[in-house]
């Protein structure tokens, strides 16, 4: 009997080919004079993350501690070789001085050359690469200066006052209530993004199931298995994913938010409406007329605020397409919704379990309120609140928004250290800066688990190495929206503390257990606190 071996052999060949493709880089670090982590097919060294055995922050801390005393070591994110940089001088050199070698982020859904209408994430500032990123950064940078934040501050203050008023009314009707902080501050952040970035007003507290919030929450649900599969496939087969029109964000939400922002722009242009918000600034950017203005060098800003580089300050005549405008609004929503609400959640938590800190901050709030004649908070008054800035800076240290930062090597880089450590970081490999671990390293922050705002007092802040503190990134590719995020956080804290104390309850988990895997840095069981009205 004749046996046909063609099909079994073909199947074996396919599996061998796939295995070779997935493991071809597994020996990459063998030729480098640095230690490296073990590797497994497909998952690389990051199996504990993709299999949800560790939280992102715990994984970063684990690998950092594993190689103590080492300046730089290797690991694999799926199939990509990654250099994890522990040394602060190397971080500064690579992120700032030698930035041109590491301009880009890891290309996650960065299908910037594809015209598929569903592919928007890749057109956002975060995902753009090379000269396209530089042009977009220079185009958008004038929208995020201190002077522009001052113009939009009334909108932030209005949302903050509305939020505090809502909870005062609930307390008056029902007495002190317990709330989950991520939910509370996600609704606040949604209202701010809606009014500032989309030009619409939504009261997410009085109308909790409004269309804007529901679609935003769906868009932000990155812990789904379907999203994880899309991320993995986009990393391994980016061109195929682009041709199929598969984006990080679902088509339904892409369509909803695209329609919303483009309708707002058309209506304003047709009716000559001018409103001091992000939509107005994007209309100017769309026309290529948004330019930098001279800033007041004496203006006080928060410690965590990052400075714009010469790349962002460059004058550009680039105008934006409709898809590019929508993409910037979407990424603004993603960053504003998650970063702000998470920072507020952990700040409220720390104030609740550190009542002495909360008491001191409340005293500053009262002092500022009195100095304003009990009128609304202003941008300048907010910037003068030194202890508030210290509290927020410490919350961002203890609970950084991103446990690590990444950079893609875009051209071969010769790393030459004075201690005979010399080798090439090859184009296509990746850098990780372990933010979470640096923020918790006792060498840079003594007693790092302690919530101590005094670290950021005027007397002590000069001792902090800037490369060890990166809540909003480092170098030219830092977060463009740090001023806006900090204004949101500080303003809502001011208004909430005027009306309430944040108190622990039986449901307050200390310390909180963080969700495992590559995803949002949020507690598994939430952060539950009581808003106790001030007497």
Quick overview:
With 535 residues, the protein is of the alpha+beta class. It has 19 helices and nine strands. 47% of the residues lie in helices and 8% in strands.
Low-confidence stretches: none
Strand order of the largest sheet: 1-2-7-4
Termini separation comes to: 94 Å
The radius of gyration over CA amounts to 24 Å
Largest sheet: 4 strands, mixed
Provide the succession of SSEs.
Answer: HHHEEHHHEHHHHHHHHHHHEEEEHHEE
Return the average pLDDT rounded to an integer: 85
Principal-axis shape equals globular
Structural class: alpha+beta
Kindly estimate the percentage of residues that lie in beta strands according to DSSP.
5-15%
- Determine the number of helices (DSSP H or I, runs of at least 4 residues): 19
User: How many DSSP E strands?
Assistant: 9
Helix content: 40-55%
Question: What can you tell me about this protein's structure?
Answer:
The chain has 535 residues and is an alpha+beta fold. 47% of the residues lie in helices and 8% in strands. It has 19 helices and nine strands. The chain has helices spanning 6-23, 47-50, 56-66, 88-97, 130-140, 146-174, 181-197, 211-219, 225-236, 238-243, 251-271, 278-287, 310-313, 322-353, 355-371, 379-383, 386-398, 435-439, 482-499; strands spanning 72-77, 80-85, 177-180, 405-408, 413-416, 422-425, 430-433, 500-504, 528-533. The strands form three sheets. It has a four-stranded mixed β-sheet with strand order 1-2-7-4. Strands 3-9-8 form a three-stranded antiparallel β-sheet. The protein has a two-stranded antiparallel sheet with strand order 5-6. Helix 7 runs antiparallel to helix 14 (322-353), helix 14 crosses helix 17 (386-398) and helix 14 (322-353) packs across helix 19 (482-499). The longest helix is centred in the middle third of the chain and has 32 residues, at 322-353. It is globular, with a radius of gyration of 24 Å. The model has no long low-confidence stretch (mean pLDDT 85).
């Amino acid at each position: 009997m004749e046996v046909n071996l063609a099909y079994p052999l073909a199947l074996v060949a396919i599996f061998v080919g796939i295995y070779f493709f997935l493991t071809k880089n597994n020996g990459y670090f063998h030729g480098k004079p640095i230690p490296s982590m073990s590797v497994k097919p497909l998952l690389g060294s990051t199996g504990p993350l993709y299999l949800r055995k560790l939280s992102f922050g715990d994984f970063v801390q684990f690998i950092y501690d594993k190689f103590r005393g080492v300046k730089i070591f290797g690991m694999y994110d799926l199939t990509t070789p990654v250099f994890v940089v522990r040394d602060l001088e190397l971080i500064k050199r690579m992120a700032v001085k030698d930035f041109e070698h590491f301009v880009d982020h890891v290309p996650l859904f960065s299908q910037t050359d594809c015209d598929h209408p569903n592919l928007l994430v890749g057109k956002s500032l975060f995902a753009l690469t090379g000269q396209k990123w530089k042009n977009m950064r220079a185009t958008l940078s004038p929208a995020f200066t201190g002077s522009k934040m001052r113009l939009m501050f009334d909108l932030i203050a209005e949302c903050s006052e509305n939020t505090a008023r809502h909870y005062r009314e609930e307390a008056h009707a029902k007495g002190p209530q317990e709330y989950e902080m991520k939910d509370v501050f996600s609704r606040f952040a949604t209202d701010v993004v809606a009014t500032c970035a989309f030009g619409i007003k939504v009261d997410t507290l009085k109308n909790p199931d409004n269309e804007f919030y529901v679609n935003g929450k769906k868009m932000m649900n990155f812990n789904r298995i379907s999203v994880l599969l899309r991320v993995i496939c986009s990393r391994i087969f980016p061109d195929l994913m682009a041709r199929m029109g598969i984006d990080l964000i679902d088509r339904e939400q892409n369509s909803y938010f695209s329609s919303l922002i483009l309708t707002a722009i058309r209506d304003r242009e047709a009716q000559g409406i001018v409103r001091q918000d992000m939509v107005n600034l994007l209309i100017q950017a769309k026309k290529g007329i948004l330019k930098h203005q001279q800033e007041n060098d004496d203006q006080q800003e928060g410690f965590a605020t990052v400075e714009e580089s010469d790349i962002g300050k460059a004058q550009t005549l680039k105008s934006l397409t409709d898809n590019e405008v929508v993409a910037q609004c979407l990424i603004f929503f993603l960053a504003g919704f998650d970063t702000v609400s998470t920072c507020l959640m952990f700040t409220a938590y720390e104030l609740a379990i550190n009542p002495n800190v909360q008491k001191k901050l409340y005293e500053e709030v009262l002092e500022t309120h009195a100095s304003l004649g009990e009128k609304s908070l202003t941008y300048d008054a907010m910037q003068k609140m030194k202890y508030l800035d210290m509290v927020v800076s410490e919350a961002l240290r203890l609970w950084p928004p991103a446990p690590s930062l990444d950079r893609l090597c875009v051209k071969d880089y010769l790393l030459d250290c004075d201690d005979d450590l010399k080798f090439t970081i090859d184009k296509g490999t990746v850098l990780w800066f372990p933010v979470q671990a640096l923020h918790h390293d006792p060498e840079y922050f003594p007693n790092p688990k302690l919530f101590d705002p005094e670290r950021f007092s005027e007397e002590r802040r000069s001792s902090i190495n800037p490369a060890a503190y990166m809540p909003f990134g480092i170098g030219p590719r830092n977060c463009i929206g740090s001023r806006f995020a900090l204004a949101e956080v500080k303003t809502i804290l001011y208004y909430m503390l005027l009306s309430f104390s944040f108190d622990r309850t039986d449901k307050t988990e200390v310390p909180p257990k963080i969700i495992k895997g590559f995803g949002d840095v949020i507690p598994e069981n939430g952060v539950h606190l009581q808003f106790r009205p001030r007497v």
